[in-house]
Here is the input.
Amino acid sequence: MRNQYLTSRGDICYEFVLYKTRTQAQADRECAVNGGNLVTVKDKRVEDFIGDMLHKLRYNGRVWIGLNDIATEGEYHWSTGKKATYLNWAPHEPTLFLSTIEDCVILDVKKHMQWFDTPCHLRQYEYICEYSIEQDVSRCPADLIRNQYLTARGDICYEFVLHQTKIHTHAEQECAVNGGNLVTVKDKSVEDFIGDMLHKFRYNERVWIGLNDIITEGEYHWSTGEKATYFNWAPHEPTMFLSTFEDCVILDVKKDMQWLDTPCLIGFHHYICEYREYPLVTHLCH
Here is the structure.
C-alpha cells in the first residue's frame, strides 16, 4: 500500500500503522509479513523523525515500538535483537513493581514522545513497522568501487569520498569523471540521510557539498544548476564581509550538519558525489 503512512529515511522504510490496533506480539508478526519488525528508535534523530511524521499525520496517541525485555528482565533489546543504547523513559519508568509482566514498550506522543513499559498481550495499540531497504548499487556507474562508501537512495547513487581531500573545483571534477556532481542537499530528509551515513562511518569533519554562488554573488545554486530553496547555515553564515571570494560551501558534521561558506580554491576537504537516474528497488517503499 503506497500512501501517506509509508515513507523512507536512509536505508529504512517506515510503515505507520495508525488505522488499526494490535497487541505487541500481533503487531510484530504483522510487520514480519513483509520482512520487517517493530520500529527501532536507536537514537534521538530517529525519534525526532518519527515525531515529525506522527505530527504530520496528526496523531497524538500511543504506538508500539520494538523495545522489550522479554528475554531477560531488565535487559532491553529491540525486535531485531540489538541491545538498546538510547532510552527515553517517562518519569518513574520502567515500573519496577510490575516489571515481571510489563515487558513491552509504547511511545506516548502526548507525553513528549516518552516511553512506558506495559504488558505485551493485554492492550492493543497502533504501531510502526520498519523494513531494511536493499541498497541496489548495480546501476551506479560501473567504474565506482563497490564498498560501504557507495550507496543508493531513491534514484540517486551517493559516493562518500572520505579517503582523500580536494579543493572544491577538483572535487567537482572527480565527481564529473563518472557523470556526477557534488551532492545536492535539497531538503531536510536528504540532510538526515547524509548525516546518518556519516555517523555510520564515525565521521565528524567537514565535506564539500554542491552549493555555491560562483555565478552571481548571493544567489545560491547547486552544482546541477538548480536554485537552492533549502538552507542550513551556521550562525552568521554566509559571511558578508568575505562574500566576494567565499563562493563555495562545506557541511560541518561537528556543528550539527550546519553549512559554512568558504573559498573554493583554498581549503582541502572530503566530499560527497551524487549520480542520478540509477534507481533503487525495494519491495515496499519504491
Observations:
- Helices lie at 24-33, 44-56, 168-177, 188-200.
